[in-house]
């Protein structure tokens, strides 16, 4: 949309604070005054508190559970175990991935901190005392924490409940600890490319397990009204409608009598998508006891038992010509899913959208396979701003391209430019079948290289490499990623059978303000502002008076929630199209009011005017009033619309990230000297909000790459499950970020927008690794596994003989 | 264990309440006084989401017993605005997009408030060190720094106006 | 997240506190800043039946001078050490080093006494105290006594403080003119304990090192005084060779516990690196 040159038009456009405006956020008022409404802020009359007894062992039989002492703790009202859930058939529950997971451990525990019993008490202090008093007798079993060990013939059987099941939700099971093997691409074509290729490289790449760790932990307040037979649950949920459907199916309460409310959420990052045992138990407790029940987990519980991310062991291979043209890609992955497959993926994709791993490159032949495996760890896998395994895919391809570059002695920018999908090739269908909507990688790359003076950086690096006394090693990491978001077209993408459309309903009030509700739910992304901005530009109503609501399943139209950067691509489209339905009706009303034909009207910013006579006009405000008292014959009163949008395709935001690091040869401390992030998310709704999302995603990426880890010892104990060890950087450690952008709209999206919030996380993590490895590249190092703590980097310095 | 009676001022208002010795100040504020601005993000005193101001000092209210506040004056985020007028730090966070999900925000605001009283003209490095007891997962701190710089400038300008 | 129930006492004097310590027995714990004890209680690793809160005892706070000594009340919080003009002038290491401890909020409550008395090898004040030749003033039912910092630490969480005693103060001789000092602490992030830390206090005259104290944090079961490292410096000019020798000698006394910060090799090597950095920084401050 071009900026109007006429100052009066400019004024009218600015007054809307619509699409493209860095307007301040509408939701801030409550947060800056401490009046946010998070789950733990909710108090209902008679509310009880629930706390959870958890297993100290990673793999053990439960011999006995003694509730007596706990029931005698003052304030304790009830103690529930799997035995109590059995009559309701709720001791196990279906997962989003077609598996089952224990709600409360049924005879055995499968991971450390697994839920074994719940204690309900009159206040949270009594509940905590009750938890200490429950006595559980365990018999330890041998522990498996390595997925390769798990697949050995004599490995312990983890899932006794699946004994004899030779196939699961995703096909055949080859072994008692095997979940699925999923493939994409053309194996024969890929093998042929490798067979004849002059150059091949291969690299094992491990993407370690990490955890999204939002600042607010998970929790709910479940409130069953026994008089009305209605269940209301306030929940930290990124997908309240899906949860409502699942809760209805599990509980037998009709969906019309189940209400899930996601209030303000203190960060989601994919940690708040799944249905946790805590939610189920709180709901059951509320139904059984007839009182509201609150459950809020601790940080240790959050890190130890809720949806983790990654844990992908990847073997990548690239076939190429001697001058660096990629001919083929092969990837084999062993995926550690933990004790239950609870991956929050669209049903048909047990490895998510990992097959975006051909990246930004024009690769003619490609094949990937992913083997899912059970181990004695918490379930999860798809979380932490990953866009359904796109973090793993981008990591794989960007690392492999560097490996190839290093083998051939080619510059890492040059090899990328050589293999990029060209602008003219879009829409481009990859060897894995993704139809990339739009992109211009060459322009974006050049913009970044110029901005950082890439040549000078490489020259500086060369000089430092030539100086044996240099106290630091300098590394330059370059990542040119394409990611796939906006799940997704319903024929491909569903969650438990519900297609991954999304929705919007808009109602304009007689006096010209509006209310709009969508099926997504913000957790800090600013939907209350950005969604209003879309409507403002479509309908000529100031965003300031457009009220946006999400998260209450009793009022919001059905949607699949917010994760995988899908809100703008899917709900954003629904918003635009719902608005256009209103716009079409408004035209009819305007024509009626102005006594002209619909085609005699032009629309400009906030009004229809008669063609050639701007003085004869009706603003959207005028039309709104008329909609309630003066509409043409045959037209209904009112001015509202609903749209359910089933996207025709995913969207493909892309980015070019460059990072410079300096590694202290004495200590391994790695300083990020510079990080330049160029993102292209198509149409930019609110640049200020986009930039904020980029800062946040880059910071999370920094944390993952440079410090986060979830180490397990041989007994399956999770070490470092508090914030003492789990690395959340403070403002002191966090680098300063430089952001930039290009705009390549999505041709299939009503406003050309692609979604952006996961890009900085997806793209930055391999950038940090690329930079650290690049610092050692002249010494023959091709890979270093994250996290790049000073300790681990120092070990490489020693190994490479350059530690001071 | 028998409850203790404490007398304290919270946001200028006097309270007399009975608490268990083990009642954490953050739970006292949130549950007994219904001041839910201070949040709980961890149990090991790292995240700072619970930060309040006690007798002129920034304190993590999750690592402070309510009984220890007998005779004290506590300021929470709910007490920052005066007479319906937002404090400069609140305005700064709004104008510079210093918040996204809002969960760390009350702690950040109360901490920033005290930081600027102790050091009215901080460098960026001093600001970052000054908020190093407050974790944020959404913003990457960059706009929070700008928000505090905005507030510092505004407070200095307001001083000049009233001086 | 929730500590177990306990009874709470807030004495107003040291003698009252000592009396309570005696009468309540071993199930009572002293509450200083609370930022070590309360988290342990919230995770239910510590479950005392009684807490004796020292925060209301005015005589335990404050910093004054007594002859050549600076006397620091045990309940003086870290931020007050940083801001104190007497320390800044007379023992600047103790005004500067606390900036590396924890974070701003924790430093408003964490006390020098709590940090010293806990016996945690990860705490910073033990090595700092050794480096400045501090003596700890202990008071019990039988009276008051002093124990030198380097004699105070007997093992992990084991100190010379008797069960019926309270640490009431820290006596530090004022730095002589021309004293250089530094504390170098390698850590994973703000607020973390040291991966390895080195405190150095030194003096030079006529081009030679005349005095050196080197103490190490978190690379052994207690804070360690690296006497051999000190000897590698004293009596000779400072040079790359003598600094390397000091680092090597310091590494030789290290016995670090392995954890997520590093294995023995890394922590030991880093102790050596921190010693080198601290010696160079201290030397630069020697007038």
Structure description:
The complex is a heterotrimer of chains A (804), B (163) and C (287). With 804 residues, chain A is α+β, with helices and mostly antiparallel strands. Helix content of chain A is 28%, strand content 25%. Chain A has a seven-stranded mixed β-sheet, with helices on both faces. Chain A has a five-stranded mixed β-sheet with strand order 11-20-19-18-12, with helices on both faces. Chain A has a four-stranded mixed β-sheet with strand order 24-34-35-36, with helices on both faces. In chain A, a hairpin with a 2-residue loop joins β31 (607-610) and β32 (613-619). The longest helix of chain A is centred in the last third of the chain and has 28 residues, at 567-594. The model of chain A has no long low-confidence stretch (mean pLDDT 97). With 163 residues, chain B is an alpha+beta fold. Chain C has 287 residues and is of the alpha+beta class. Chain C is built from eleven helices and 14 strands. In chain C, α10 (240-253) crosses α11 (264-285). At the B-C interface, β4 of B face α2 of C.
Summary, kept brief:
Chain B is α+β, with helices and mostly antiparallel strands and 163 residues long.
Quick tags:
heterotrimer; B: 163 residues; alpha+beta; five-stranded mixed β-sheet; 5 helices; globular; C: 287 residues; five-stranded antiparallel β-sheet; four-stranded antiparallel β-sheet; 11 helices; 14 strands; 33% helix
Count up the helices of chain B: 5
Proportion of beta-strand residues of chain B: 15-25%
Q: Count all strands of chain A and give the number.
A: 36
Number of helices of chain A: 20
Task: Give the rounded overall mean pLDDT of chain B.
Answer: 97
Radius of gyration of chain A: 28 Å
State mean pLDDT of chain A (0 to 100 scale): 97
Report helical residue fraction of chain B. Answer: 25-40%
Question: Most extensive chain contact?
Answer: A-B, 57 and 58 residues
User: Which oligomeric state applies?
Assistant: heterotrimer
Structural class based on helices, strands and sheet pairing of chain B: alpha+beta
How far the N terminus sits from the C terminus of chain A, by CA atoms, comes to: 57 Å
How does the major sheet of chain B shape up?
A: 5 strands, mixed
Count all strands of chain B and give the number.
Answer: 5
Strand ordering within the main sheet of chain A: 3-7-1-16-13-14-15
User: What is the helical fraction of chain A, as a range of percent?
Assistant: 25-40%
Class derived from helix and strand content of chain A: alpha+beta
Described by strand count, sense and barrel closure, the largest sheet of chain A is: 7 strands, mixed
Strand/helix succession of chain B: EEHEEEHHHH
